Amino acid sequence: MSLTLICIPLPGTHSLQYFAVATSEGTEVPEYVAVNMVDDVQYSYYDSTMKTPILLFDWLNKTGGREFWARRTRYILYGHDAIKWSLRNTVQHFNHTGVHSYQDMGGCELHDDGTRRAYSAHAYDGKDFISLDVETMTWTAAMPQAVFYKHKREADTAFQQTDVGFYQKECFQSLKWYIQYGMETLLRKVRPEVMLIQRKARKSAGTDIICHVTGFYPREVEVNWVRDGEHLQEEGVWSGEVLPNGDRTYQLRKILTVSPEEQKKHSYSCQVDHASLDEKMDVKWIPEAGMNMRFVVGGVLAALVLIAVIIGVLIWKKRASGTKRHDYTPAQSEYFRGVLII
């Protein structure tokens, strides 16, 4: 039985990601944990105490989905074997004892302009170790001590063939399939809600104006501070990252600091552009409302409480290993900032 993928429009960027961590024996946590996500939404979970991964999306159980899920399960279990191999070889190479961790993260992205990207990177004890160039299928060591691993992986033709199959074909087929069958969820459009909050600036006599945009989907959003009808440059504007809420929507904050003199001379508004809007949303700041003013557009205040539970695997907080080691120097990169948090 073969699976047929129907070509559908892909507004914005869609991604398939996996995060996995293996730890040495002797801890109370599972020695292997893997989380798979589509568009920042977790769709499966697996750890070494389980026989098979857990599927979290009901729509993956539709006709045809069972066969496809069986194929994905094989890749998830393969990842378990691969990362244990990586941890074992790395610990032996460094002649380390005690508890150590090995992380693996990767995936693929599809853009509405037809471009695509796949990536893979590894870390040892929370520090960048090695990454895979998917285009050339060659490994790049992040430190001299990781060159041995590069040689081992490139010399293992079975590993290389599996990696080629996943990153150059299977990952993108999987992502298209998820979008096709999860269209109602993944291709939906949810209007943003906007709150303006003002507070006294911490480092000046001015005022911080917080434009908090939340509850929107898809992820892509444009938020700008406007002064007298013209977009402000980023100078004087602090921009946060787009973060996931706990309900499969997103949030973003932009903070503008204005001096007392500027408040008297100019008018300010927060402008939001999103795929769910027929036209840009423009929310004007009214300083006369007082320092505790709240301005809500698109929903009730209670719906705008900041979501405390952010998907842990997307925010890699820096955690050094318990014992400092001096036999290799950590590399600086954006791939890994610490141990995978589930």
TrEMBL record:
What protein family does this chain belong to?
A: Belongs to the MHC class I family.
Q: Which UniProt keywords apply?
A: Glycoprotein, Immunoglobulin domain, Membrane, Transmembrane, Transmembrane helix
Q: Where is the Ig-like domain?
A: 192-284
Q: Where are the transmembrane segments?
A: 295-316
Q: Does the keyword Membrane apply?
A: yes
Protein name according to UniProt: Major histocompatibility complex class I-related gene protein-like
Q: Where is the signal peptide?
A: none
Query: Record's Pfam families?
Result: C1-set, MHC_I
SUPFAM superfamilies for the chain: Immunoglobulin (SSF48726), MHC antigen-recognition domain (SSF54452)
PANTHER family given for it? MHC CLASS I-RELATED (PTHR16675), SHKT DOMAIN-CONTAINING PROTEIN (PTHR16675:SF235)
The answer to keyword Glycoprotein applying to this record is: yes
Q: Which InterPro entries match?
A: Ig-like_dom, Ig-like_dom_sf, Ig-like_fold, Ig/MHC_CS, Ig_C1-set, MHC_class-I_related, MHC_I-like_Ag-recog, MHC_I-like_Ag-recog_sf
PROSITE patterns linked? IG_LIKE, IG_MHC
Q: Which domain of life is it from?
A: Eukaryota
